[in-house]
Specification:
single chain; 284 residues; alpha+beta; four-stranded antiparallel sheet; 6 helices; 64% helix; rod-shaped
């Protein structure tokens, strides 16, 4: 017996199938849309995160640039302050140099006697020299008389030698007597230089070195030889005695300490040490 189906049941089943078929594309579309939306959201989030990171890096770079700019401004200010300080220091240094020169001059004025200082020959030494030259003159006279009596003046060179010796001895004796009777100035000193006997004034700046030494290794008489370079020596007009002294142990400008009082020798030595390079060869 055939089964009988209700027409309504068939219709409802078919409708469901049709509805399911119709709804399938919609779900697919919705799923695709959701997937697309999710993909877009994820991409947007990724872009946002990347942008945020880039912005953060840019902000850090900007901060570094700002720090560098601030440091540059600070350096510029420091450089400006430093340049102004350097200018002030230069001005101060110029002023200080002037003040140093002034202070040095004042110190020299304090140390170096401003008034003219004169030193004279020791009359006791002159008396000794007078006695020595007098005895030498008498001795030469006695020898000359003896030679005359023995008729030994036949040789002209011996006669000339004795006459020259006697003249030199009498001249030295006369000069010593004159100096003893009329006290002569041995040295005259001021802040510009030193004048020895009747020679020209020797400037302190022209003295290369002042050397203290003995006249001979036997006599041990001290004197100070003032050495002057040839370039500076040509500026001075030398006397006959200075030209003679130029070729021996004495220089054209020499100070006989042995002809002075002990206290005067110490004082003149100290003054020369303040003005020129000093070399003491007597202490070696």
């Amino acid at each position: 017996m055939p089964i009988s189906r209700k027409p309504g049941a068939k219709t409802s089943a078919t409708q469901k199938a049709v509805n399911s078929v119709k709804s399938a594309p919609q779900k697919i579309v919705e799923h695709a849309l959701n997937t697309a939306i999710n993909t877009v959201e994820k991409a947007a989030q990724t872009d946002v995160m990347r942008t945020a990171k880039r912005a953060e890096k840019t902000a850090k770079k900007l901060e570094k640039v700002q720090k560098i700019a601030r440091a540059a401004k600070t350096d510029a200010k420091r450089a400006s302050n430093l340049s102004s300080r350097i200018d002030k220091m230069n001005q101060t240094s110029k002023t200080s140099n002037i003040s140093k020169v002034t202070i040095t001059d004042k110190i020299k004025e304090i140390i170096t006697p401003q008034k003219e200082v004169s030193f004279y020959y020791d009359y006791r030494q002159l008396l000794v020299l007078t006695a020595i030259y007098a005895l030498l003159a008498i001795f030469v006279y006695i020898i000359s008389v003896y030679l005359v009596q023995k008729n030994m003046y036949e040789s002209w060179w011996l006669y000339g030698f004795m006459v020259a010796t006697q003249i030199f001895t009498l001249g030295a004796l006369a000069s010593v007597v004159y100096v003893t009777a009329m006290p002569q100035r041995l040295a005259f000193i001021n802040k510009e230089g030193i004048k020895i006997d009747h020679n020209e004034m020797l400037a302190w700046n022209d003295i290369e070195v002042a050397e203290e030494r003995y006249t001979t290794s036997i006599a041990h008489r001290r004197f100070i030889a003032l050495h002057v370079t040839p370039e500076n020596l040509v500026k001075y007009r030398l006397t006959f005695m200075q030209k003679l002294c130029q070729g021996n142990i004495f220089t054209p400008f020499s100070i006989p300490l042995y002809a002075m009082k002990a206290e005067d020798a110490v004082e003149i030595r100290n003054i020369i040490k303040r003005h020129a390079k000093y070399q003491d060869n007597c202490s070696k």
